[in-house]
Write a structure and sequence with these properties.
It is built from three helices and no strands. By secondary structure, it is mainly alpha-helical. The termini are far apart.
Length: 75
C-alpha cells in the first residue's frame, strides 16, 4: 500500500524552504563577516521567531511581478 504524502499549504511550504538556513561561521569571526550587524536598525536576536512579511518564494514573486507589470501596461 502506497503512503500518500500530505500536500503542504503555502505558508508551510515557505517555512520548509527557508527555515534552518542559519549557520555559524567557523573560519572567521562573525563580526568580521557581518560588520554592519551592530549598527542602528532592527535588532533580531532570535531568527526562529521572525516572520517574513512578504512570504514569497522567487517563483511566486515572478508571477506576482508579472501581474503587476501587465496591469501597468494596460494603464
Amino acid at each position: 500500500m502506497a503512503v500518500q504524502k500530505k500536500k503542504l499549504n503555502l505558508k508551510d511550504k515557505y517555512q520548509y524552504l527557508t527555515r534552518d538556513m542559519g549557520w555559524e561561521p567557523t573560519y572567521q569571526k562573525k563580526e568580521d563577516i557581518f560588520p554592519h550587524e551592530d549598527f542602528e536598525g532592527i535588532k533580531i536576536t532570535d531568527w526562529s521567531q521572525w516572520e517574513d512579511p512578504f512570504r514569497l518564494t522567487m517563483d511566486s514573486y515572478w508571477k506576482y511581478q508579472a501581474k503587476r507589470e501587465e496591469a501597468v501596461r494596460h494603464f
